[in-house]
UniProtKB/TrEMBL annotation:
Protein name: ABC-2 type transport system permease protein
Similarity field: Belongs to the ABC-2 integral membrane protein family.
UniProt key word DNA-binding: no
Subcellular location: Cell membrane
Topology versus the membrane: Multi-pass membrane protein
Record keywords: Cell membrane, Membrane, Transmembrane, Transmembrane helix, Transport
Any one Pfam family match given in the protein's UniProt record, by short name: ABC2_membrane_3
Coiled-coil stretches: none
Residue ranges of domain ABC transmembrane type-2 in the record: 140-368
Residues spanning the membrane: 25-42, 173-199, 220-249, 255-279, 286-307, 347-365
Native species: Rhizobium viscosum
Keyword Metal-binding: no
Length: 370
């Protein structure tokens, strides 16, 4: 009998989400927007950069440097400056992000085997992009220096460094972003759908009818818990397929480990959503509460910035964030073939968070019934 009652509640919850225009909007539009925006637009790569060159050198190496900058796929257009005033106006007007000034003795110093300096002027208002562009230009300058006669002689006496990037050899940014989206979209959908469940009952006036039904309190909570987890698994599957077949992200690990750990992750997210829903009286309050948690959770998960870069007093706060642990699992399964022992180490905190959030949601739910 308990399974019949529970199945009826699960079907009812799924139909309530599917038939509600707002519910369908939440299930369709945000996942597509995240997939498009984060996969293509939200990238830390710097491309299609416009720069300006003030070339005071009439020799071969100054022209060689300009040609190498033009041949780089990072730079879109190179404008020529006649004087430093042109550089100032271009930087002030944000027409270019960087300007390179080649001194009059650039080629002469290279031929003489002495230091030849370049001045790079950057737009500090775009600090992150400026640092990356500076690194690109510095790398081009170092490559040019190594190809000069003096550079080839010096290279024979020094140690050559050959960098190799493990797990993402070409540093393809989508290989990093798309696996992260699998975890973030499960957080978004699971949290919002669960947060709306009890608040929707109160707003529609069916909450009292639910309470006088034969369902017990724990059966109501389980019935509210399972549909968001099913929807979250569905969206995760879509994103896994998109990662593999659309974006070409390699799947080096076990899908069994990924989906096994996702059960605990979705349970912890659903527990948070039920807690928010039990606190809320309307669906608007539930949505605001969900976003109030979700934005800090994204920022404190290591999604955009490493946790190690955060202040020491803030890092312990991330220990209660389920997204932190599941991001490690998702990226490990896709890019590293993470072992089962490491997956277990990250799943145990998820299980503890799930127990704590579901327990808190059940306690608050019973308090509201008193």
């Amino acid at each position: 009998m308990w399974w019949t009652r529970l199945k009826a509640l699960i079907v009812k919850e799924l139909l309530a989400v599917m038939r509600d225009p707002k519910g369908r909007f939440v299930l369709i539009v945000p996942p597509l927007m995240q997939l498009l925006i984060f996969s293509y637009a939200a990238t830390l790569e710097v491309r299609n950069v416009d720069v300006m060159v003030l070339n005071r050198d009439s020799g071969h190496w100054g022209q060689e440097l300009i040609q190498r900058i033009q041949g780089s796929p990072t730079f879109r257009r190179i404008e020529t400056a006649d004087n430093q005033t042109d550089i100032r106006e271009a930087i002030d007007g944000q027409a270019v992000i960087a300007a390179i000034e080649i001194g009059p003795d650039f080629s002469r110093n290279i031929e003489a085997g002495i230091s030849a300096d370049l001045q790079i002027i950057l737009d500090g208002r775009r600090s992150n992009a400026s640092q990356i562009v500076s690194g690109y230009l510095t790398q081009i300058g170092m490559t040019l220096s190594a190809d000069t006669p003096a550079g080839r002689r010096a290279m024979a006496k020094t140690v050559a460094t050959v960098p190799r990037n493990w797990f993402n050899a070409n540093l393809t940014y989508q290989w990093f972003m798309v696996p992260n989206l699998i975890a973030s979209i499960a957080l978004l959908i699971g949290l919002i759908v669960t947060a709306l469940s009890i608040a929707r009952e109160r707003e529609l006036g069916t909450f009292d009818q639910l309470m006088v039904s034969p369902l017990r309190v724990h059966e109501i909570l389980i019935g509210k818990l399972i549909p968001p987890m099913m929807i979250g698994l569905f969206h995760m599957t879509l994103y896994v397929l998109a990662a593999i077949f659309i974006f070409g992200v390699p799947l080096r690990g076990s899908l069994f480990l990924l989906y096994g750990s996702s059960i605990f992750y979705l349970a912890s997210v659903a527990g948070l959503g039920l807690f928010i829903s039990a606190l809320s009286m309307t669906q608007q309050q539930a949505i605001l509460g969900a976003f109030l948690f979700m934005v800090p959770a994204m920022l404190l998960s290591g999604f955009a910035t490493p946790i190690e870069n955060m202040p020491d007093w803030l890092q312990p706060v991330t220990l209660v964030n389920p997204l932190r642990y599941f991001l490690i699992i998702v990226k490990g399964v896709f890019l590293k073939d993470i072992p089962a022992a490491e997956v277990l180490n990250q799943t145990i905190p998820l299980a503890l968070i799930a127990c704590a959030t579901l327990g808190a949601a059940a306690w608050l739910f019973r308090r509201r019934l008193e």
